């Protein structure tokens, strides 16, 4: 069991390394804000990046990644190792702690897997506009469509209903074994567990209703993060209940159908993911892809004498342009090329999203550039 917990913890780190490739290995745009401040500290400057104070509180992470700068190590290199390493430690410590407290390897494995694959759920939410996945499945929820309505949420109700059924009926009968031991060792009451289940269902419904009412193009993935842990714990109750039901013929049929659905869902996800990995290995991924490396925009930024550049994608320039000092565009001016062109004669690099760079030649006339 200890080896299983260790293996799942390492998988968590691997997921971070592979799934954040479009921002640079192990880095997200938020991480780049910390990196920008760390570079300022490592080079002896103040805590300002360009003209904008970065929101890097608490400062511990920034100090950790800037400290090796004394030896000439770039904070980006430190962050790419430190980010996944921290998650590995969190998964390992949490899994081993619960394993020791409950004397249940099943508990340790479930909790470690929940923590490890919560990152996969977050990145799936971020990358699949047509298919949003919450741990163990609130099924397909397309965010970007203009005809989106709450009917798609209905497809997730059967799984949620099974979770609620297992929670309400199985809790009192299985208090001394299985996943229920997690709550026993933490001294949590029956009402708390029921509130936890209600929170998972109500919170997801609330997010979906709000996103439909305000007609936003795409919901921010962080809104769903609070639902991951309750869903993971409820999923544990589902597994526990299915094991108990497997003693009857009806339970075996139901459990077999449920397991088959999960396997088919996982297989479809893997079938999509493997070609993406193969393509990324051949062409490069995200900012490391050939389209970025050969773009006129990046070539111009590298050749610029003045490396203090105004941009809407500071993370891309940090990773692709050595020695750059980035000043981020105000939020309202970072959306469209036409808005950027109105800034005047300031040195601007405008980049389209994270997957394809906007060709600077199309902006040159408006920016007064050659």
Task: Describe, in plain words, how this protein is organized in 3D.
It is a single chain. With 370 residues, the chain is mainly alpha-helical. It folds into three domains: 1-127, no CATH class; 128-245, no CATH class; 290-367, no CATH class. Helices cover 60% and strands 4% of the residues. The chain is built from 16 helices and five strands. The chain has helices spanning 2-19, 29-42, 60-66, 75-102, 105-127, 151-154, 157-173, 180-185, 190-214, 228-245, 249-283, 290-293, 296-303, 314-320, 337-341, 364-367, and strands spanning 48-49, 52-53, 308-311, 325-328, 348-349. The strands form two sheets. The protein has a three-stranded parallel beta sheet with strand order 4-3-5, with helices on one face. Strands 1-2 form a two-stranded antiparallel sheet. It is elongated. It starts with a helix and ends with a helix. Residues 46-55 and 124-188 have low confidence and may be disordered.
Topology:
Elements: H1 2-19, H2 29-42, E1 48-49, E2 52-53, H3 60-66, H4 75-102, H5 105-127, H6 151-154, H7 157-173, H8 180-185, H9 190-214, H10 228-245, H11 249-283, H12 290-293, H13 296-303, E3 308-311, H14 314-320, E4 325-328, H15 337-341, E5 348-349, H16 364-367
> Gap between N and C termini, in Å?
63 Å
Portion in strands: under 5%
On the 0 to 100 scale, the average pLDDT is: 62
- The 3D shape can be described as elongated
Q: Order the strands across the largest sheet as they lie in space.
A: 4-3-5
- The level of helicity is 55-70%
Describe the biggest sheet? 3 strands, parallel
Number of helices: 16
How many beta-strand runs? 5
SSE string, helices as H and strands as E: HHEEHHHHHHHHHHHEHEHEH
Uncertain residue ranges: 46-55, 124-188
- Structurally, the number of domains stands at 3
Task: Round the Cα radius of gyration to an integer and report it.
Answer: 24 Å
Label the structural class.
mainly alpha
